[in-house]
UniProtKB/TrEMBL annotation:
Enzyme Commission numbers on file: 1.1.1.-
Lineage of the organism: Bacteria, Bacillati, Actinomycetota, Actinomycetes, Pseudonocardiales
Gene Ontology molecular-function annotations: oxidoreductase activity
Top enzyme class: oxidoreductase
Membership in a protein family: Belongs to the zinc-containing alcohol dehydrogenase family.
Protein name: Alcohol dehydrogenase
Keywords: Metal-binding, Oxidoreductase, Zinc
PROSITE patterns (UniProt xref): ADH_ZINC
Keyword Hydrolase: no
Cofactor: Zn(2+)
Originating species: Saccharothrix longispora
Domain Enoyl reductase (ER): 10-343
Highest rank taxon of the organism: Bacteria
SUPFAM superfamilies, per database record: GroES-like, NAD(P)-binding Rossmann-fold domains
Length: 345
């Protein structure tokens, strides 16, 4: 089969690799019918995730049709159409039994495209298939469903829920890329009083408006002064970091009010300074996290009921064998305007 293979920082290739087979009785092999590329895949290509070794098939987001299942798999069967979660869950360890699947001790967590071969391929082996896939209703199409592999649960859990967004609060989202936009959309589920998007690109701020932001601020402007004005001098109740660079994290800590919360979602490849000399007295809460995908069933129900518009994240569509072109378009999003690219058979 063909797959997108990582060959070290800055090097990738769409090339022939062996077809996957079930290794453990809890495995399934899924024929990929739709996939999308994540900002984390770009971080891997930059060398920011050293655990990913050359030869690894990239990708952790997909929709597909079950081809084969191991002897212990009972929840899905060949022919079923499923969402492949970005997080694999053994379902038995201490963390999985409390819904913290991202920290799975039994061989799961974020493994696809990280420590085992991923979804940017014609077929993928899915570990712990019973607890790492979701049956899809016929009413939900592939292009919308694949957004529930990662960006929507990540933004919702690590950004909105960890940030403690409540009705009437002011929320600032730094970074209006796919994760930031997903944070805006899911924050609106809690009826905040104000949602502000901050980004360097006007095109992404325009997209943020379409996704529900009440106000936008160019990152090249005086962001602190703008947020102070919008919040009556108080500062934001919640700041969601959705970029993954030191400057935006540090800015988040300056934008919140005393008692405010910073929810870091971005993947960081460099150290950021934590100014405890300023923060210790301000009752500030800072959260970090890897998505657990425990919210995926609820998000899927909302998507099926028309309460979420996931399809609009996809700005560019490609055939699966145009993977290399899709990576190029997604990596140059400032020029191409790409939010999420969807690849289908």
């Amino acid at each position: 089969m063909k797959a997108m293979v990582f060959h070290g920082p800055g090097r990738r290739a769409w090339e022939d690799v062996p077809d996957p087979e079930p290794v453990d009785p809890t495995d399934a092999v899924v024929r990929v019918t739709a996939a999308t590329i994540c900002g984390t895949d770009l971080h891997i290509l930059k060398g920011d995730v050293p655990e990913v070794t050359p030869g690894r098939v990239l990708g952790h987001e997909a929709v597909g049709v079950v081809e084969r299942v191991g002897a212990a798999v009972t929840a899905i069967k060949p022919g079923d159409r499923v969402l492949v979660s970005c997080i694999s869950a053994c379902g038995r360890c201490e963390y999985c039994r409390t819904g913290v699947y991202g920290q799975c001790l039994g061989g799961g967590g974020w493994v696809l495209g990280h420590t085992v071969d991923g979804t940017h391929a014609e077929y993928v082996r899915v570990p712990f298939a019973d607890t790492s896939t979701h049956l899809l209703p016929d009413a939900v199409d592939d292009g919308a469903a694949v957004m529930l592999s990662d960006i929507l649960p990540t933004a919702y859990e690590v950004g909105v829920l960890s940030g403690g967004v409540r009705p009437g609060q002011s929320v600032v989202v730094l970074g209006a890329g796919p994760i930031g936009l997903a944070a805006i959309e899911t924050a609106k589920l809690f009826s905040p009083g104000l949602v502000v998007a901050v980004d360097l690109a006007q095109s992404r701020l325009d997209a943020a408006k379409q996704f529900g932001a009440d106000a936008t601020v160019l990152a090249s402007d005086d962001v602190e002064a703008a947020i102070a004005e919008l919040t009556g001098g108080r500062g934001a109740d919640v700041a969601i970091e959705a970029v993954g660079v030191p400057e935006t994290f540090e800015l988040c800590t300056r934008l919140i009010r005393p008692g405010g919360r910073v929810a870091n979602v971005g993947v960081h490849g460099k150290a950021a300074t934590l100014h405890l000399e300023d923060l210790w007295i301000r009752n500030v809460t800072i959260t970090t996290g890897l998505v657990d995908t425990v919210s995926t069933p609820a998000l899927l129900r909302m998507l099926t009921a028309g309460r979420l518009d996931a399809a609009r994240f996809a700005t560019h569509h490609f055939a699966l064998d145009e993977m290399d072109l899709a990576y190029d378009v997604f990596a140059r999003s400032a020029e191409t305007g790409a939010l999420k690219v969807v690849l289908t058979r």
